[in-house]
Amino acid sequence: MKYMKIAAMSLMAAALFCSCEKKNVTPGPGTGVVGFTQTEVTMLETDGLTYIPIAVTGEPGGYPVTLKITAEGSEDVNEVLLISSTDPYSNTTTLYIGEDANNTVNLQVSPAWRPDDNADYTITLTIVEATGSTIGTNNTCTVYIKNVPAVQYGQYTVKGGQGSTPATWYLTLKQGANGTYLMENIFDSTETPVLVGEFDPETMKLTFDGRINGKGSTSYFGTSAYYYENLNEGDIQKVWIVQGGGRDGQEPVVFSVNEQYQITSTSSSLVALSMLYVSNGEGGYDPSDEDPTYLGMMQGNTTLTYNEGTDMDDEYPFK
């Protein structure tokens, strides 16, 4: 009898436990209808992060509304279009719309710059599954990714115009971030700042318009904006000065590009020098007694020849 009572109590406890256990119930669609609010998107391969909105109209059957989205149009979509939350081993993305999200969510995409690939791509995004809502007619979004021609990276032989110093030097062109170009080794000096430029395929011009990619404190194109570190009194800080053309040294340096996307010539001027400043220990600086160090001067009417077999590895430093 004692054993029968214990068994009965065990069964009651099990039943009570089961009745308190929360069940996972997949919400029905309700009157909610989900779809892309923008069914076509066109972007350059050098564009940055882009948001493609998805919205639910009506009343969802429950939250969160869960969406599964596929991407097709390339053998490896991830090499063409980077999609938020995409599993690198799958072409399916899962998104969630919470109750406090006003029934909307943004699919985040970013095109991948492909300097060695001159093709355009069309990627089709499709909502293939939805819980808490019905999939509407706007279940696809077509993403058109336009190719941006890339200038050939590598080493170029620079032969300057009359009065240029040095008369011949080697320029290195590398890949920067978001479709930019980095000019290094100016006047055969690894100490010079790295200049950041942009290529315009309409005019076939590569322009360096005043941006620097690091390399110490720099006054670029003759401007007076210096960054000084608050060093101890007597400490030395080197300041780079890079000037373009014009009387004020602020005209951009513009190179011509040929049909093989190699830089070939320029009529622009370029000067690079460095100066030493001495800290007063309070954030102020005075010029040192040493004369400026001139690294080089390019007077214009300059020819550039691409050196075959000197391709550079891809790099993605900050812009």
Question: What can you tell me about this protein's structure?
Answer:
By secondary structure, this protein is mainly β. It has one helix spanning 2-20, and strands at 33-36, 40-44, 50-57, 65-72, 81-83, 92-97, 104-111, 121-131, 134-135, 140-146, 154-159, 168-175, 181-184, 195-200, 205-212, 217-220, 236-243, 253-257, 263-266, 270-279, 285-287, 293-298, 302-306. An eight-stranded antiparallel β-barrel has the order 11-12-13-14-15-18-19-23. The chain has a five-stranded mixed β-sheet with strand order 5-7-3-1-9, with no helix packed on it. β14 (195-200) and β15 form a beta hairpin. The longest helix is centred in the first third of the chain and has 19 residues, at 2-20. The radius of gyration is 30 Å and the shape is elongated. The chain starts with a helix and ends in a 13-residue tail after the last strand. Mean pLDDT is 83; it is low at 1-9 and 314-319.
Beta content comes to: 35-45%
| Net shape | elongated
* Alpha-carbon distance between the two ends: 83 Å
Give start-end ranges of low-pLDDT stretches. Answer: 1-9, 314-319
Mean pLDDT reading: 83
Helix content: under 10%
Task: Report the strand count.
Answer: 23
How can the largest sheet be summarized?
8 strands, antiparallel, barrel
Structural class: mainly beta
Q: What is the radius of gyration computed over CA atoms, rounded to a whole number of angstroms? A: 30 Å
With helices defined by DSSP (H or I, 4 residues minimum), what is the helix count? 1
Strand order of the largest sheet: 11-12-13-14-15-18-19-23
